[in-house]
Design brief:
Elements: E1 6-7, H1 28-31, E2 46-47, E3 56-63, E4 66-77, E5 80-83, E6 94-97, E7 111-113, E8 116-120, E9 137-141, E10 171-176, E11 191-197, H2 200-208, H3 215-220, E12 229-233, E13 249-254, E14 261-270, E15 282-286, H4 290-302, H5 305-312, H6 318-321, H7 327-338, H8 344-361, H9 376-382, H10 386-394, H11 409-416, H12 419-427, H13 442-448, H14 452-461, H15 475-481, H16 486-498, H17 513-520, H18 523-531, H19 546-552, H20 556-565, H21 580-586, H22 590-598, H23 613-619, H24 623-631, H25 646-650, H26 658-669, H27 684-691, H28 694-705, H29 715-724, H30 727-746, H31 749-760, H32 762-768, H33 775-793, H34 796-812, H35 814-834
Parallel strand pairs: 1-8
Antiparallel strand pairs: 2-11, 3-4, 3-6, 4-5, 5-9, 6-7, 8-9, 10-11, 10-13, 11-12, 12-15, 13-14, 14-15
Helix pairs in contact: 7-8, 8-10, 9-10, 9-11, 10-12, 11-13, 13-14, 13-15, 15-16, 15-17, 17-18, 17-19, 19-20, 19-21, 21-22, 21-23, 23-24, 24-26, 26-28, 27-28, 30-31, 30-35, 31-33
């Protein structure tokens, strides 16, 4: 579909606050309260009262008397509406303001506007494929909309933010006229739902596990979740965006200064599968991304002459500092202006004016103008004003002045990657080895933030590549430890490694470079460390190995590399006897847990508290992970050092929630022993009563009274599960076929057929004896018969020789070994159930 829009090709940061729009992010409720709290309620589609979200805009069409909603948007000024780029392809689109219900006559004060210009982010769809990246656009109205109680703008963040996880776990709201659930019709009612912003790593994990099998994810999320997108949802699912919500805002309530308000952090892009999908949380354009924020600022600048004059630097110093005759008066003006949370460009101009005025007055340029000891030259670096930075240096400003965090301007330049300022400061003999309050010099700071060009410059200058901070961490440690800009940090780490950084130095916690790399870095970084002398068996002070750390941080690529290529033992334990599976179960890391089980980790291993992975998973209410552990043979009745079973652990949390309740139900249906007592003599029912889980108490009573009979899992289902895992195919490929091939050459044809039959189809015979009391003997018979027949037909020494050859082959193949472990584990589980 053709798009009627413009694309901005040149983007510059500008001062957004040039518009006189009063107080943004306010609604009727906030204007009438002196003390407010988060007003969203816990529902997955709560109808909103009129005037609650006055910045909401409906984009759609007027069909006679009926409004047809297509997408949402948010009013960010009296002439601009922020929306999703994929919403701009409709012809004849109109915008509707000040409405709550499209089909109600109770709020007929709405305004409909059709004359507008569309601006789409230039990177949206630049590859020719419409991905989720930079899915943001702005409609600029031909004439401004008039504000009232039901039409108000939303606040935007003041500055871009490189920290992609700065809002991790924060509560936010999404608002929209979309469907209440998948399959429902759009009823024209504005609703909101509370969500939680997930860590970027979790967004990547949820989508990565389906990357190879899901065409939609592979095409629309080719890079998963870079800085320009984020995800939000609810751990139990059911909360999220739906069809018709695209372009609508994700907002956060801020109760601090300068006044209580809502701030928009995201624009709804969409999701995968059903609305509120627990497995794939909805995706949002991240407004604080640098390139997204620059795009918004560039569009606003086109309609804001005052912003243009600020950007061009033509604002005279007279209106601000002309009456300031002393350093103290300049200081007071700066404090007042900076208390208003200025935009980057205005702040830069202000710093320039203040510097020029102080030079005119021949005053001290190094005075601190705020409580943190910040000087003008610090702020010139912060707001990237190179001209002001030069002016201050040429007029004697101290390049080594330190704020209350002991940071020099050089530290800030290294932190922000201002390589031009770094080069100039070195020419004027700034000391890059000065340490801040954390004991870090400029090289530490540059490496931590992934500024490779600055790191190269400082190493050429002669700085110590292995200098230590207060925590005994080197620049290499910091480059690998920081996960904010992973690609840049990896490149910086590789440069430091190849520049002969010491890879075996340990910090105060015993972390070496390989430990940080195992948590965050890809395998090629790990390979370089190992090649330079790092050890895959090295331990931290609490006994964590690289494999344990990779597992705890869900670094799947490194987990597989360490086990398969570096031949690390999957059963490594820390000094509390915890395995990798304990860590993944404790953190609800489903996919890494699955990989560890496939690699042969012992599912019922116990730590020093005698807790199994199932204890940890149950304690935190991870029902989905529990189900996988149980299906792989986890002992549902294992007791820890206090005699507590996983069921009692699941019920021990006094905060009643659905996750723990579902977990407890799953354990009961997995035939948890309800009569087991802990060391205090408590049973599962006692704990359920104490914690207030009434539904679990009722379920236990029903089971104990016989009103509810729980059935064993059907063996056929186990067979199907194992078949899906490909175990039968592996047995055929690695064991049956070689034996059959050998017997074709060395034994009777009939015997070869028999071996194939008994190896590849034992499950059918298990099912045939499903209700037989002598199942255990039957199982043994079916497993032993092929070898018994071999002994009967062939010479015993020949059989032993061939079996030894096959055993040696098994030892050489890790795949076969893992398959054997699974077969043996399955046999033991069958014996336990039916024996």
């Amino acid at each position: 579909m053709a798009r009627d829009h413009l694309i901005l090709l040149f983007l510059f940061p500008v001062f957004i606050q040039g518009f006189d729009i009063g107080q943004c992010g306010q609604n009727i409720i906030l204007k009438n309260l002196t003390k407010i709290q988060h007003i969203a309620v816990a529902s997955n589609a709560t109808e909103s009262a009129r005037g609650t979200w006055p910045w909401m805009v409906s984009a759609g069409f007027q069909d006679r008397s009926q409004w047809i909603h297509a997408c949402g948007g948010s009013l960010i000024s009296d002439r601009h509406v922020l929306t999703a780029a994929h919403c701009t392809g409709y012809r004849g689109l109109r915008l509707r303001f000040g409405d709550q219900s499209h089909f109600s006559t109770a709020d007929d004060d709405h305004v409909v506007i059709r004359d507008m210009v569309t601006y789409v982010h230039p990177k949206f769809g630049e590859s020719g494929i419409e991905t989720v990246y930079y899915d943001v656009a702005i409609w600029e109205l031909e004439s401004p909309v008039e504000f009232n109680d039901f039409i108000q703008p939303i606040c935007l963040p003041r500055l871009s933010n490189e920290d992609i996880d700065s809002h991790k776990d924060e509560l936010v709201d999404i608002i929209g006229w979309g469907r209440k659930f998948r399959g429902a019709t759009i009823d024209g009612v504005l609703r909101h739902a509370p969500l939680k912003i997930f860590a970027q790593e979790w967004c990547n994990i949820t989508h990565a596990r389906a990357f190879e099998t899901n065409d939609v994810i592979r095409e629309r999320w080719p890079q998963l979740f870079p800085s320009c997108v984020m995800c939000a949802g609810h751990s139990n699912g059911g909360y999220g965006s739906c069809k018709g919500d695209s372009g609508s805002p994700l907002v956060k309530f801020e109760s601090g200064e300068p006044y209580p308000r809502y701030v928009q952090l995201g624009v709804i892009v969409g999701g995968v599968g059903q609305c509120g999908n627990r497995d794939f949380p909805s995706t949002y354009t991240r407004v604080e991304d640098f390139e997204v924020m620059n795009f918004i600022n560039a569009v606003l600048k086109r309609s804001n002459p005052s912003a243009r004059s600020l950007l061009d630097g033509t604002m005279s110093s007279a209106p601000v500092f002309s009456e300031a005759d002393t350093m103290e008066q300049v200081q007071e003006i700066l404090r007042n202006r900076f208390s208003q949370e200025l935009g980057d460009v205005f702040a830069s101009v202000l710093i320039k004016q203040a510097s020029e005025r102080l030079i005119e007055l021949d005053e001290d340029l190094d005075f601190p103008f705020d409580v943190s000891g910040t000087t003008l030259i610090h702020e010139a670096v912060r707001f990237n004003s190179l001209d002001t930075f030069k002016t201050l240096i040429w007029n004697g400003a101290d390049l080594d002045s330190q704020n209350d965090f002991d940071q020099t301007p050089f530290h800030l330049a290294a932190e922000l990657g201002r390589s031009d300022m770094i080069q100039l400061a070195l020419q004027y003999y700034a000391d890059p080895d000065i340490k801040d309050s954390l004991g870090r010099n400029a090289l530490h700071v540059a490496a931590k933030n992934g500024h490779l060009d600055v790191v190269e410059m400082l190493l050429r200058y002669g700085m110590d590549i292995d200098s230590l901070d207060e925590q005994l961490r080197t620049p290499l440690h910091l480059a690998l430890a920081n996960n904010k800009n992973r690609q840049a940090n990896n490149a910086t780490a590789l440069y430091l490694i190849k520049s002969n950084a010491n890879v075996t130095l340990a910090d105060r916690d015993g972390f070496q470079a390989i430990h940080f790399a195992a948590k965050n870095a890809p395998t090629h970084v790990l390979e370089q460390l190992l090649w330079r002398g790092a050890s895959q068996s090295s331990r931290t002070k609490i006994g964590q190995s690289p494999l344990i750390l990779a597992s705890s941080e869900s670094n799947v690529e490194v987990i597989q590399y360490l086990i398969q290529a570096a031949e690390v033992d999957v059963m490594e334990r820390d000094f509390e006897n915890m395995t990798c599976l304990h860590y993944t179960a404790q953190r609800n890391l489903f996919f890494p847990s699955k990989i560890l089980l496939e690699e042969g980790v012992e599912i019922n291993a116990k730590d020093m508290r005698l807790s199994s992975p199932l204890h940890y998973s149950s304690q935190h209410g991870y029902s989905r992970l529990n189900k996988m552990l149980l299906s792989n043979g986890a002992d549902v009745n294992a007791q820890d050092a206090m005699g507590m079973t996983p069921l009692v652990k699941a019920l021990s949390d006094d905060i009643i929630d659905r996750a723990h309740e579902d977990t407890a139900k799953g354990l009961i249906h997995a035939l948890a022993d309800l009569q087991v007592q802990d060391h205090n003599g408590w049973k599962a029912r006692d704990q359920a009563v104490k914690s207030g889980y009434d539904t679990i108490v009722q379920l236990i009573d029903d089971v104990l009274s016989g009103r509810l009979v729980l059935e064993l899992p059907k063996f056929e289902e186990i067979v199907i599960k194992r078949k899906k895992d490909g175990i039968s195919d592996k047995i055929d490929e690695e064991v049956v076929d070689p034996v059959k091939e050998w017997l074709d050459k060395n034994g009777p044809k009939r015997l070869a057929d028999d071996v194939s039959e008994f190896f590849s189809k034992p499950t059918k015979q298990f099912i045939g004896h499903f209700e037989n009391d002598e199942l255990k003997d039957k199982v043994k018979t079916e497993f032993n018969r092929p070898f018994k027949q071999l002994e009967d037909v062939l010479e015993k020494d020949k059989v032993e020789s061939e079996l030894k050859r096959l055993q040696d082959r098994v030892k050489e193949s890790k795949t076969i070994k893992r398959v054997q472990n699974k077969v043996e584990k399955e046999a033991k589980r069958i014996f336990k159930i039916f024996g």
